[in-house]
Each structure stands twice: as structure tokens, then as C-alpha cells.
Amino acid sequence: MAALIRRIISTTKAPAAIGPYSQAVVVDRTMYISGQLGMDPANGQLVEGGVQAQTRQALVNMGEILKAAGCGYENVVKTTVLLADMNDFTSVNDVYKQFFSTKFPARAAYQVAALPRGGLVEIEAVAVLGLVNDAS
Fold first, then answer.
1. Rounded mean pLDDT of 108-112?
2. What does the alpha-carbon distance between residue 91 and residue 133 come to, in Å, rounded to a whole number?
3. Which of 26, 49, 60, 86 holds its CA 20 to 30 A away from the CA of 120?
């Protein structure tokens, strides 16, 4: 059996990892994007403005990682949304649908006890590289 190739994806246009992990890892044509907080990559701090501002920044950060791998939001097939408060679900969705407007990826959403740096939302994703054609 042929060995699979693993490639680490990293960009300065998204916040650096705050622990021993990569921003994203590609194996074959599948990319696993680490959870993105609503952190400003310029200063490493959470953006102000509440859960919607943090959601927007987390998804912008994800977009920069996708670009670094040569793809975009249309390549995302699965996301996981972690919320500090499930009452923010609708507010997060209002921003989320600005980035994923059709052919939504599969998704799970959970409330968690706490997020790093006191974040309100964290979003991770799985994407596939290359042209994605939809079945009729």
C-alpha cells in the first residue's frame, strides 16, 4: 500500500496556534482545520463585539487557512461549532450563513464548559481539496 502524504498548512494571516498543534493538516485531499477562535491575527487577542464579532473573525481566520491550501469555503464539508453559551446559537447562525450560503456543510454544535482565552465560539472544519462538483 502506498504511503499517504501529510502536509502542514500554516499562514500568518490567521492566528498562530496557541498550543502544540497545527492550524491545519492535509492528508491526501482532506484538510483538517483546527478550531478557530475569534482572534485578531495581528495581536492574538479576541475581537471585541460579542459572539457575532468573534464568529465572523473565526470564519475569516478559517478562510485564510483555506486560501493557504488553495481552496475556499465551498470546499468545507463538515464543521463543528463550540459555544460557551447555547443561547448564542441563533446569533452564530446569522453570521455563519454569510460564509456558507448554499450547499451547507454538515455540522455539529455543542455548548462547552469553557473555551481557550475565554472565547465565546470556536469553529473547526474538514475540507476537501480540489474542484468539488455537486451531484445532480
1. 98
2. 30
3. 26
Residues composing the chain = 136
User: For residues 55 and 38, is the Cβ–Cβ distance under 8 A?
Assistant: yes
Bridge partners, 8 (sequence order): 25
- DSSP-assigned beta bridge partners for residue 82: 110, 122
**Inter-residue contact 49 to 42 (CB < 8 Å):** no
Residue type, 45: Q
Q: DSSP assignment, residue 136? A: -
3-class secondary-structure state, position 127: strand
Pair 59, 99: CB distance under 8 Å: yes
User: Grid coordinates standing for 111?
Assistant: 455548548
Query: Cell numbers 492566528 label which residue?
Result: 15
Q: What is the DSSP letter of 46?
A: B
Within a 10 A sphere around the Cβ of 115, how many other Cβ atoms? 18
d(CA 46, CA 126): 23
CA distance 89 to 7: 33
Check if the beta carbon of residue 31 is closer than 8 Å to that of residue 129: yes
